[in-house]
Amino acid sequence: MKNFLEEWNNDSPYVEVQTSGSTGEPKRMRVEKRRMMNSARITCNFLGLKHGDTALLCLSTDYIAGKMMVVRALERGMKLVTIEPNGCPEWEGMVDLAAMVPLQVWNLLHQHPSRLMQIRHLLIGGGAIDERLEEGLKDFPNAIWSTYGMTETLSHIALRRLNGPTASSWYTPFEGVTLSQTEEGCLVIEAPAVHDGKLVTNDIAELSTVNSQLSTQQFRILGRKDNVICSGGVKIQMEEVERMLRPHLSIPYIITRAKDERLGETVVLLMEGGNPDEAKTVCQRVLPKYWQPHRFLSVDRLPLTETGKPARAEAERLAQKNGDHPHG
Predict the structure, then answer these.
(1) Which DSSP string corresponds to 166-206?
(2) How far apart are alpha carbons 114 and 108 in whole angstroms?
């Protein structure tokens, strides 16, 4: 955090941030400090955070999520409790705001659930939230939110509640954010407070207008455009296949693709250990015929980014490299 504070307090109006590399090679980009303050203000106002509240930093400040927790504390005048980032955060006392990746929340839920109740507002981002994790959080008394955003939007521009009476599978964007779609169905974001111009994402989305008079929009994400497998003329969304398998496969896995002479591309299930024949049986029972993997590849460790997301490019390389030795 020391390095980030030095950068924040220097004379430059910019801060350098690094993307997570979930869809390819990580890259560095410059963002304006004033827009980071805008983002922090919007989140703090939405959650009703005030001067003197306590925020917990348990994420690396190498990435935007960790940097923005520091900026929120600075913007709102909150006390900041900092701990070493790890898979199962440990701290003392109540905090008003914390941000975690799904892996941290999963570990706390199964090892120290009482710690989760020490957070008034918990923001979960940086990866897909498993249905089992969401189910495990639904009865918690505090406010638990799934975030939608990216480095370019300086963390999140929309939230959805995971528990309580207002829980929803749809994200609600912050005030001042407008949404549209490309012809391919990708989400387009206009958020002038945090980003200059239109931001065309790679996320395939479904939009819904909640209040036509107020033009209130909500959206849900179906998957990423670059995670579409075109197999024999059928378009298959990797995330949708993963979502369907989650209740049925207990081993860690990633859906990826490999080139195929006949089909163009073929679905590959990359799994950490496990029995390929058992996985194949599950897939045949659960998935539509054309979504079923043609290959089942067991690896010692799944390729993940530092923030715990599937490293899609590396997964594809592994599938292609091992294409000559498929299981099933």
Answers:
(1) T--SSBEEPTT-EEEE-TT-EEEEE-TTTSSSEEEEEEEEE
(2) 8
Domain co-membership, 138 together with 257: no
- Say how far apart CA 6 and CA 132 lie, in whole Å: 40
Global pTM reads 0.78
| Domain CATH for 9 | 3.40.50.12780
Question: Is position 288 within any domain?
Answer: yes
pLDDT in tens, the chain (328 residues): 889 999 999 999 999 988 765 555 677 889 999 999 999 999 999 999 999 999 999 999 988 999 999 999 999 999 999 999 999 999 999 999 999 999 899 999 999 999 999 999 999 998 778 778 999 999 999 999 999 998 889 989 999 999 999 999 999 999 999 999 999 899 999 999 999 999 999 899 999 987 655 567 999 998 888 899 999 989 899 999 999 999 999 899 999 999 988 889 999 999 998 899 999 999 999 999 999 999 999 999 999 887 678 899 999 999 998 764 444 4
- Final residue belonging to a domain, choices 141, 175, 209: 175
Domain that holds residue 252: 232-321
